[in-house]
Amino acid sequence: MAEFWSKGVATEIATVSLKVAFERIGIGNIVAFTLPTNWASRQVMEKVGLRYERDITHAGLPHVLYRLKREQYRMA
Ligand SMILES: CC(C)(COP(=O)(O)OP(=O)(O)OC[C@H]1O[C@@H](n2cnc3c(N)ncnc32)[C@H](O)[C@@H]1OP(=O)(O)O)[C@@H](O)C(=O)NCCC(=O)NCCS
């Protein structure tokens, strides 16, 4: 549903997901990956605090891996 793209929905979902993972469940670190050319997804990852770590291969395709550790996460 393209009419909902770039309205902050994915950023809102990612923000809540990180909050639950770190603050309620206590997960040590979160990773996310996408195709290198998926600039919107990369922007969402970076906006919520994940940082590029390395290139990986997933499903036979090049991907970029991002990570956020619990100690790097700012509790809101
Ligand atoms: C990728 C996707 C899930 C992101 O969800 P969303 O709700 O649109 O994301 P948000 O609105 O929270 O944030 C998107 C950010 O990417 C930016 N962006 C969008 N297209 C971009 C592009 N081509 N290059 C760089 N940045 C881009 C937006 O400007 C926004 O950043 P900003 O808030 O700093 O301006 C959604 O856009 C989507 O489904 N896109 C098409 C399908 C797709 O690519 N799916 C993933 C592949 S499997």
What is the total number of structural domains?
Answer: 1
Gyration radius (Cα, Å) is 13 Å
Q: What percentage of the residues does DSSP assign to strands (E)?
A: 25-35%
**CATH-level-2 architecture:** 3-Layer(aba) Sandwich
Sheet having the most strands: 3 strands, antiparallel
**Name of the CATH first level:** Alpha Beta
Average pLDDT works out at 95
> How helix-rich are the residues, as a percent range?
25-40%
Uncertain runs? none
Shape annotation: globular
Number of helices: 2
Helix-strand pattern, N to C? HEHEE
CATH superfamily: Gcn5-related N-acetyltransferase (GNAT)
Question: Could you give the order of strands across the largest sheet?
Answer: 1-3-2
N- to C-terminal distance: 30 Å
Bound molecules: coenzyme A
Give the strand tally.
3
By secondary-structure content and strand pairing, the structural class works out as alpha+beta
What is the CATH topology classification name? Aminopeptidase
Assembly state: single chain
Would you kindly provide a written description of the structure presented here, covering whatever features stand out?
The protein is of the alpha+beta class. The chain has one domain: Aminopeptidase (3-Layer(aba) Sandwich), CATH 3.40.630.30. Helices cover 34% and strands 30% of the residues. It has two helices and three strands; from the N terminus they run αβαββ. It has a three-stranded antiparallel β-sheet with strand order 1-3-2. A hairpin with a 2-residue loop joins strand 2 and strand 3. The radius of gyration is 13 Å and the shape is globular.
